[in-house]
Amino acid sequence: MSEYCAPLKEIRFVMRDLAGMDQVVSLPGNEEASPDVVDAILDEAARFSTEVISPLNRIGDIHGAQWNDRAVTTPPGFKEAYRQFVDNGWNGLGCDPEHGGQGLPRLLSTAVSEMWKGANHAFSLCPMLTQGAIEALMIAGTEAQKAVYLPKLVSGEWTGTMNLTEPSAGSDLAAVRTRAEPVGDGTYRIFGQKIFITYGEHDMTDNIVHLVLARTPNAPEGVKGISLFLVPKYLLQADGTPGSRNDAYCVSIEHKLGIHGSPTAVLAFGDHGGAIGTLVGEENRGLEYMFIMMNAARFNVGLEGLGDAERAYQRAVAYARERVQGTEIGVRGGPKVPILRHPDVRRMLMSMRSRVEAMRALAYVTAAAQDNAHGNPDPVQREAARAFADLMIPVVKGWSTESAIDIASLGVQVHGGMGYIEETGAAQHLRDARITSIYEGTTAIQANDLVGRKIAREQGATVRQVIARMRNDAEQLDGDLARLGACQTAAVDALEGCVSWIVANFSSDPKAVHVGSVPFLHLLGIVAGGWQMGRAAVIARGRLDFGEKDAFLEAKLVTVRFFADHFLTQAGGLADSIMNGATGALAMADDSF
């Protein structure tokens, strides 16, 4: 079974030429990210992902996490690999140096995160949730909480979780009923149950820091009455080391379709007198703080989709090269050939490859925007970068994960009947990818956020600025790239028409707009991904015209052409369904379903 191999040449091309790594490292605070440092980190991350965590991917899938008497054991090798992960400093790559992090750009940590997710999706989930906890405490934690918990979380010695969902609440956080009763000195006792808590219990560290949504006694109903609490697995002694066990226990773990190596816990708080917790930030602002974690997690889940898709593509290509079956079409009496030579297999592989490259380009450009939103000294550019990143994060999450499911499914199809056999490994990528469009907000939640908060609320201002940039870049697609330019322009026309329709109808016919919200998210993903692919084509053509001989650049032009012909051309049909598809979805009587 093949191991994951980080596509370093592609990663470096996207970082440098599309996301603008040189500009990002010139921002204040990024002085340590010299080209030599960046290259060394990418090389070592590629080695670690291939040699250490990729071999555990199959082991994690087969063995899974095991629960016994409120304790969870991770699959063989996970604990040792996590120790290497922490000892090598990977957990603090992008974190604030004030708390022990390395303070490196989000763009670089994004590339490294993609490698973890491609190599071993289940393993990567533990540090991902810890990063979310770090961000929430950085923004809203008290000075005492930061001093005690951030160094341990940043190093990875302790891990973090976020506890939102309850059995009766699901995605409706207004229905949260976990309660927090004050006992004095800023301390509360927490009572309730949370479900779907990723790495809510495990054996890889000596403490777990739970961030828990709960209601205080006098809190108002609905989302305005939710507060955020820090509840450690072990209460701390005076010297800051773990002491007595807190009243927060894992009462079971879920039996899931995929990501078996990652324990998804049901946590019970307060069954034996109350779990001790401290308030994070101000009372009744918990949902606001939790969305800090959620926004970071949503972007990272988009990277999970990218990682799963890349891994599925790599496995499918490897199989297509070695599987000999049938003669080549049009060659009478020819020899048996690898299935890579068959037109439909090539179509499937190009469909996988082109979307992976488009997803990566959009994600990395969004990561660079986050770096600029944080550190650009020009307030105008800083605000423009923030607006762009806010617009694209639901797209990176929703479009990338939905695409990953289809890409992983195509990977099974390339394998034929063997893809349906677990031993080939193709099915695992489909099972693992399937959760990504659900957790940290389903695709519909991402799409509702996109059309409501990111477009309708500001009358399409940000997306129209992006559309103007798309049109300007499409003008560079001339000569032998004219076909790409025509496809991009037509797709941008379709996108712009839908934006105008959403702005015009959001208040008067919100149900119609929301019927089209997920298709619109797909449309924006395709057009934005195609925009980045077009930029890549211009760069590749320029280098080839300048005399650079590189098969990578030639392949880039072919991949971009495929994306334009097979995906940008879908824009018109999507636009039609977005603006005219509500009647068929809403007209049916409830009893007729």
Model description:
By secondary structure, this protein is an alpha+beta fold. Helices cover 56% and strands 12% of the residues. Among the domains are: 8-66 and 73-155, Butyryl-Coa Dehydrogenase, subunit A, domain 1 (Orthogonal Bundle); 159-284, Butyryl-CoA Dehydrogenase, subunit A, domain 2 (Beta Barrel); 443-586. It has 20 helices and 14 strands. The strands form 4 sheets. Strands 3, 4, 5, 6, 7, 10, 11 and 12 form an 8-stranded mixed sheet that branches. A two-stranded antiparallel ribbon has the order 1-2. Helix 7 packs antiparallel against helix 8. The mean pLDDT is 95.
Task: Using brief descriptors, characterize the structure shown.
593 residues; alpha+beta; Butyryl-CoA Dehydrogenase, subunit A, domain 2; eight-stranded mixed β-sheet; two-stranded antiparallel ribbon; globular
- Measured by DSSP, the beta-strand proportion falls in 5-15%
For the termini, the CA-CA separation is: 45 Å
The gross shape turns out to be globular
Largest sheet: 8 strands, mixed
How many strands appear in the DSSP assignment?
A: 14
Q: From the alpha carbons, calculate the radius of gyration and give it in angstroms.
A: 24 Å
By DSSP (H or I, 4+ residues per run), the number of helices equals 20
What is the residue-mean pLDDT, rounded to a whole number? 95
Helical fraction equals 55-70%
Question: What is this structure's SSE topology?
Answer:
Elements: H1 8-18, H2 21-25, H3 35-53, H4 55-63, E1 66-68, E2 71-73, H5 78-87, H6 106-119, H7 121-140, H8 143-155, E3 159-163, E4 179-184, E5 187-198, E6 208-214, E7 227-232, E8 234-236, E9 242-245, E10 248-253, E11 264-269, E12 275-280, H9 286-322, E13 324-327, E14 336-338, H10 343-375, H11 379-415, H12 426-433, H13 443-456, H14 461-474, H15 482-505, H16 510-515, H17 517-545, H18 551-566, H19 571-580, H20 582-586
